[in-house]
Amino acid sequence: PLEQQNDRNARIQVHISHHQAKTLKLESLAKGDRVLVRLEHQGRGDYTARPIKKLPRAVTKLVGVIEESGEALVLRPTDRKNRDEYILDSKGQTITAVKGDIVTAEVLTQSRFGKKLVRLTDNLGPLNAPRAVSLIAIAQHSIPWVFPDGVVAASEKLEGADLKGRTDLRKLPLITIDGADARDFDDAVHAEADSNPSNKGGWNLTVAIADVSYYVKSNSIIDREAIKRGNSVYFPDRVVPMLPEALSNELCSLKPNVDRACMVAHMTIDKHGELKHFKFTRALMRSVARTTYEQVQEAMDGNPNELTKPILDSVIKPLYGAYTVLLEARKKRGTLELNIAERQIKVSEDGKISSIGNRARLESHKLIEEFMVLANVAAARALQDGNMGALYRVHDLPSVEKIANLRDFLKGFGISPLPFAATPI
Questions:
Q1: CB 287 within 8 A of CB 188
Q2: Looking at residue 296, what is its pLDDT?
Q3: Of 92, 228, 216, which Cα lies nearest the Cα of 147?
């Protein structure tokens, strides 16, 4: 039994067997949950309630807009599924709000009849503010966007790493390539032709990522807060980071001309793009440039700027040399290429959306993608070689029925696909 209630007429007790819980997917049922039940009379005013299904929990917290109803102010939820109006509690109210403000509130009463009473917990600003949409989404989905003081204090006490236990890569001209609107730089890359005579046409590739684990120790106050958040959340006008700014925008951001702790994948490929050797190290690096996809592509297209011109021959062209080899290997594998346009929302300085369009997909984007895929392949092999447990994403072969349907579909376009006995399409 989860809970026993006593009243003047009956005592209702819920019994759930293991079989019922599994069948009705009620394993997560807990005290306070609402359940649709069938009552069975047991005699002498006693009933047993057999669960049929779990119902949504009653709303206890919500986000809404302050509106006028007659001479009073009411709260109308931003959730379109909730069409109720809520009366503002006048007792002990410390948050002030006026018509048109976006607020968060907690429900004080859950009466079935009449308007429910709420107490305001925060005022997020006016509804017509340019950045109101993201604030509503943050509040609606309970995204924690303010770090506790203890987490902020702990992150601000951290200091940069030294060379102890690390390889010194500060003289290696690593660069970061990100979007123009990127606020933190997680990875850096470098490539050079392999000088080993036995690997003519091959390349040595280096992919470095910020060594977050050096700063965020397991079960630390920062780690526990990161677990609550799970990931960073990106909006057109803001980012709600998983880690405090002292880490996400500073110590764990591979900014140019500063020492940064990193994890590094050292990889060697042959002229056919096959991964021949790899190893992983912890290192200390110093990026020589923070570049954008557009800047790097323009440099390769013959239009370098002040930033990319000094590193065009020594850094950028070797990156494209290694990328070209990887791209040819990708084509030989018959990898599916999905050139799906990514939407880009541009926000003006006053916070208003100025345009919505397709983000350009450049060779520089694909270059970084190929390097990252290769680094992940190396990481997977390292885990396998070390007999360490890991999760792998596996795409199974399509069924015969799906292949048959595809062949019939392609025939309508005059395309004759390979027979069933060949390699899956």
A1: yes
A2: 98
A3: 228
